[in-house]
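Help needed: design a sequence for this.
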């Protein structure tokens, strides 16, 4: 009935000899007439004679799916598809020789049919049904790619229900060696905000075969899945949480492939692609209202604690000029990282920054961020675009000088416009091998800022600089004392008594004047 199978150029080719006529044409004739019953009976007779014939099993799958589409069984009677698994299990090769003149490509036929369904009213249920019925093997591997491609398309356009349905169809198999099954479960957990799914996936990921890559379309969709969880947890500010927490979430996930140079580059590229998805950006900025509090654990992603993460955390001996938030609070300043809803350009720049920090090896790409971010900061006054979400250890050592120069550039711009440089200079990095040089430049900058504030009689700035670094005020002692006394007299004459105690205390304690 069936000739012995043979290998040609590494591909299994099977030859059909046991039936009269062309089975593909025979079944397609039945399907054209919607004669599903006779089609299945004819195939059942032939399968009884040739139980290992892969073509018959593939055609049976086609008939079952098309009948299901015609009778709406995906919705009304999914049990009619119970036999799919038995047929799919027999389809192990793509190429099948019908005759010396004709080869049928079984995997390709099923792929074509599946893609047709994705453009019909039966999507995503038809593709999901195929995935759930499909045993692990070469055909399943092909459909992982097909399915993740559709998932990626859905999630990028904000179509969450079909994305969840397809992820579930991949995640319901227990295939521990394949990281893609666990990644599907993880993404489903993120999108659905389901802790149980997330924790199960994180456990399974560590059991996967580390030599197997994560599907490229899954990588493309991963940042969107994480973003979706952020806005599920925090509808108003989830976009900001994503900026702060994305890399921490990747560390918690601890997906081995993302620790490789290739994997890290791919996930970073996926984030960068988000910044070019204008429809996504338009939706995302609706979720960038001010955060009530920024912490390293701003979102409860999973029950796994950061201390349990096996992936190495970034470490550096670099420090910034001072701890920003504490100094701002001590001086009565507003933390501008939380004062406004982001506009489209700002959020886009933040996403670019997250992409760069996800793959710090790509050092040349810092130009993509620093130059436009500097221009944006000057244009809008939103200077925190350059440092929100950054820590000293995030920046590659040979980029620190370039990064610092951007902050010095902004500081000089602020001095020219009689604005405070305090928030900006506190993010300047002091590299371990060049700290004193940078400190000297910052001190000089502060002195220039103080002189400018004094010359402009901007006593609010003068007091801010003096409180930040009293020695700077003493360098311009005479002018500082003079404008402070003028300010006191002006308040007295205008019956503005609020703040006079502060000015008097400043003169006596900071400037050493017995007032």
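Sure. Designed sequence:
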């Amino acid at each position: 009935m069936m000739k012995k199978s043979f290998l040609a150029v590494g591909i299994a080719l099977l030859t059909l000899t046991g039936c009269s006529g062309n089975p593909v044409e025979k079944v397609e004739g039945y399907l054209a007439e919607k004669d599903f019953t006779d089609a299945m009976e004819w195939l059942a007779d032939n399968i009884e004679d040739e139980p290992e014939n892969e073509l018959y099993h593939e055609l049976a799958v086609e008939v079952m799916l098309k009948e299901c589409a015609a009778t709406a069984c995906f919705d009304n009677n999914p049990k009619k598809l119970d036999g799919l698994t038995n047929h799919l299990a027999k389809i192990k090769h793509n190429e099948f020789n019908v005759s010396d003149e004709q080869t049928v490509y079984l995997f390709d036929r099923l792929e074509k049919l599946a893609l047709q369904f994705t453009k019909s009213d039966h999507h995503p249920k038809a593709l999901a049904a195929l995935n759930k019925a499909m045993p692990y093997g070469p055909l399943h591997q092909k459909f992982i790619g097909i399915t993740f491609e559709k998932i990626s398309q859905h999630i990028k356009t904000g179509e969450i229900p079909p994305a969840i349905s397809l992820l579930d169809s991949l995640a319901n198999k227990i295939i521990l060696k394949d990281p893609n099954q666990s990644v599907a479960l993880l993404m489903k957990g993120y999108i659905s905000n389901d802790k149980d799914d997330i924790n199960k996936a994180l456990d399974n990921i560590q059991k996967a075969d580390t030599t197997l890559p994560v599907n490229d379309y899954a990588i493309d969709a991963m940042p969107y899945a994480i973003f979706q969880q952020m806005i599920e947890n925090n509808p108003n500010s989830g976009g900001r949480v994503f900026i702060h927490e994305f890399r921490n979430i990747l560390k918690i996930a601890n997906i081995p492939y993302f620790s490789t140079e290739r994997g890290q580059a791919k996930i970073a590229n996926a984030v960068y692609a988000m910044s070019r998805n204008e429809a996504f950006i338009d939706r995302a900025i609706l979720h960038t209202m001010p955060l009530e509090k920024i912490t390293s654990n701003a979102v409860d992603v999973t029950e796994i604690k950061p201390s349990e993460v096996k992936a190495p955390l970034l470490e550096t001996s670099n420090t910034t000029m001072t701890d920003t938030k504490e100094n701002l609070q001590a001086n009565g300043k507003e933390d501008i990282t939380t004062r406004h809803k982001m506009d489209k350009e700002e959020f886009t720049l933040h996403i670019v920054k997250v992409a760069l920090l996800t793959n710090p090896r790509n050092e040349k790409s810092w130009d993509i961020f620093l130059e436009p971010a500097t221009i944006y900061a000057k244009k809008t006054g939103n200077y925190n675009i350059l440092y929100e979400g950054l820590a000293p250890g995030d920046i590659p050592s040979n980029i620190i000088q370039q990064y610092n120069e951007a902050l010095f550039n902004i500081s000089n711009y602020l001095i020219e416009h009689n604005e405070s440089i305090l928030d900006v200079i506190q993010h300047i990095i002091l590299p371990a091998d060049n700290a004193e040089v940078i400190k000297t430049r910052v001190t000089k900058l502060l002195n220039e800022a103080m002189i400018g504030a004094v010359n402009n009689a901007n006593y609010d700035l003068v007091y801010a600089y003096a409180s930040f670094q009293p020695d700077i005020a003493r360098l311009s002692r005479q002018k500082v004392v003079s404008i402070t006394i003028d300010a006191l007299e002006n308040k007295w004459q205008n019956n503005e008594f609020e703040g006079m105690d502060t000015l008097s205390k400043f003169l006596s304690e900071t400037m050493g004047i017995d007032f």
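The radius of gyration is 32 Å.
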